[in-house]
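so my prof wants the structure for this chain in the tokens format not the other one, which i didnt know existed until like an hour ago. anyway here's the sequence
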Amino acid sequence: MSKAGAIDYPGRHETFERWFGTPLGRALLADQRRMLDHELSHLTGARQLQVGVSHRLPLATGTDFAQRIMTTPRWYPHIPDGVTVCDAHELPFPGDSMDLVVLHHSADFSQYPHEVLRDAARVLRGEGTIALIGFNPLSLWGLRKLASRHREGPWGGRFMLRGRMEDWLHLLGFNVEASVTRFFRLPLQRSGRKARNRLDAKFGGNGILPVGAYYCILAKKRVYAGLPRKPAWRQAKVISLSGTRTIGASRGCARRQYAPGKTD
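here's what i got, hopefully its the right format
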């Protein structure tokens, strides 16, 4: 189990999906749905893609997109329309084809978390939005993961630093527009039976405390305007010299020209 390749990720996907049926899992999922519905409700476009550990956990259902697509890492009988079976790091969609990509703990439960972000960036069109949800290691949930000997449910995930994910998004050409942590309940099942606790009510919507159970990063894909190509120097400003060298007077740099059939 020390090597990443030895981890049974399909098995962890299944236990994580089952965990969402527990009181704590239902409370966490409800909070994530409320947050995304509030943050993404103004978005419109042609296609919305959700990449997660299961197609049975839909998010961002309040957006106005013509088509909603979900992925699942495993094949099931009677998979509904609009669901694609694939790995999170190998999306079978053309580049620049999605207006919104939601990564629901995809990097947490992938053997290749950086490739998950890279492929999401590939399929997202310019100025499109990515919503990245992951477990926060700098929280009581992160401490619970370190202390737990079991790797079922959320404790089988990676719990990667929020700052690290933001750095990866910057490198992939994104502007981070919002980054918050949420869900301040104890990682115990009895805390999930409460409709809402005081910390959730006080800090759940403003992102002040950085120690929530999960983080959500909203980022927009930058588009670089194409610059018209211009010659490095113009013929009128070239000073002819003896030999086989020319100097661009406007640039002040030397350029080597080779006559056909000659070598140094």
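also thought this was worth mentioning. The CA atoms of residues 69 and 82 lie 5 Å apart.
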